[in-house]
Amino acid sequence: xxxxxxxxxxxxxxxxxxxxxxxxxxxxxxxxxxxxxxxxxxxxxxxxxxxxxxxxxxxxxxxxxxxxxxxxxxxxxxxxxxxxxxxxxxxxxxxxxxxxxxxxxxxxxxxxxxxxxxxxxxxxxxxxxxxxxxxxxxxxxxxxxxxxxxxxxxxxxxxxxxxxxxxxxxxxxxxxxxxxxxxxxxxxxxxxxxxxxxxxxxxxxxxxxxxx
Length: 212
Hints:
The chain has helices spanning about 5-50, 60-65, 70-90, 95-110, 115-130, 135-205, 205-210. The chain is elongated. It folds into 2 domains: about 20-110; about 115-185. It is mostly helical.
């Protein structure tokens, strides 16, 4: 395989990885924006429903979330945002106690939210079989949630670093090959002009031929 073929292969590979990285970044940003929009609409709808219905139940609040296709983590974040707004803003429309009651109901429904699925069933089994299992598991569950969040953030950073390093490495490798073979490329490119000059020189009459 000659140099030009290698150059084309490397260029195609580089374009492929850059396009894949760009699509991954766009998809990640789009998902984040969609989740932000869903949480905002859910907060607005939940506050409106709580104002219009003073006896709104947690099951009804979950229905509002389900029709907006919110995940459990999005519901939790939305409740946290609303509790923060109720604590910070003086004239917030909904009392903070009602929001905290919904947050308590959420924790009862999803005691292991944020923990890997393969650990939820064993933890639930331990809670049922051991007396005061819920109280004993609370510190462990808290540490597992914190570890899971840190692990997820670390994986995202590692994916970004790995993809960026790969692209930079391909660019550096391609540039190194190009600079190494640049003199040979120049020599090859100058051959056609030299070949064309040979017939022209051979056709020019010499001094001896001119005298004859």
